[in-house]
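Example 9 (inverse folding). The structure is encoded as follows.
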């Protein structure tokens, strides 16, 4: 998988970044990137099964919230999200040559580990701008990988963003990736990953951010319990 990412991703970035900058349009570069990720996942022997795509509202920029159990989660999830999505990610990743440039062009949202109020507000502002530009936002609200598959406490950034933008929230459950790539290991085992899009949750239907967060968490926990 990493070989595919490097062998195809580097030349694609070297061509696609200046091309996208000249045209002022990142869509072609994004399409190439998702195609390379799909190919890498396939070469790793990972089959991806998608359920519940009918739950994604058509024609709306959404906030997708997924559980997180493996480093395989992002490459499995991002290519199956329709349209283009920005992602909340560690600020340090933006410093990677070529990849960091591409992520900035794609309006990916840097998140600082400092957790200061100013940094958090800045991340929400970046994400709101991405939503207004027509992108989706994808977030792993636990902020890190779960060691046992149970949901960790949620970070609040996604729910501040929802309150500010009223964007629909689509909970997601990913299963199978924890067995294929365990925490602390780079080894990948072939298998099937399942991505389930759950029914949309509208921020306007909840009185507070806390109620909204509870609703999202409850939907994800119930699906995990059904599928276990």
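The amino acid assigned to each position is listed next.
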């Amino acid at each position: 998988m990493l070989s595919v990412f490097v062998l195809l991703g580097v030349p694609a970035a070297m061509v696609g970044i200046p091309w996208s900058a000249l045209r002022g349009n990142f869509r072609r570069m994004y399409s190439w990137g998702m195609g390379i990720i799909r190919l890498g996942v396939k070469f790793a022997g990972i089959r991806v099964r998608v359920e519940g795509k009918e739950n994604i509202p058509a024609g709306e920029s959404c906030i997708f919230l997924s559980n997180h159990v493996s480093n395989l989660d992002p490459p499995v999830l991002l290519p199956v999200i329709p349209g283009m999505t920005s992602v909340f990610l560690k600020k340090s990743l933006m410093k990677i040559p070529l990849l960091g440039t591409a992520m900035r062009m794609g309006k990916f949202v840097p998140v600082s580990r400092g957790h200061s109020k100013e940094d958090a507000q800045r991340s929400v502002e970046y994400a709101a701008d991405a939503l207004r530009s027509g992108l989706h936002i994808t977030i792993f609200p636990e902020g890190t990988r779960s060691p046992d598959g149970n949901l960790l406490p949620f970070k609040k950034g996604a729910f501040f963003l929802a309150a500010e933008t009223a964007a629909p929230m689509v909970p997601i459950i990913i299963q199978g990736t924890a067995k294929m790539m365990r925490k602390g290991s780079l080894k990948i085992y072939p298998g099937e990953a399942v991505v389930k899009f759950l029914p949309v949750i509208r921020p306007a239907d909840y009185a507070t951010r806390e109620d909204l967060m509870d609703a999202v968490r409850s939907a994800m926990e119930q699906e995990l319990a059904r599928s276990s």
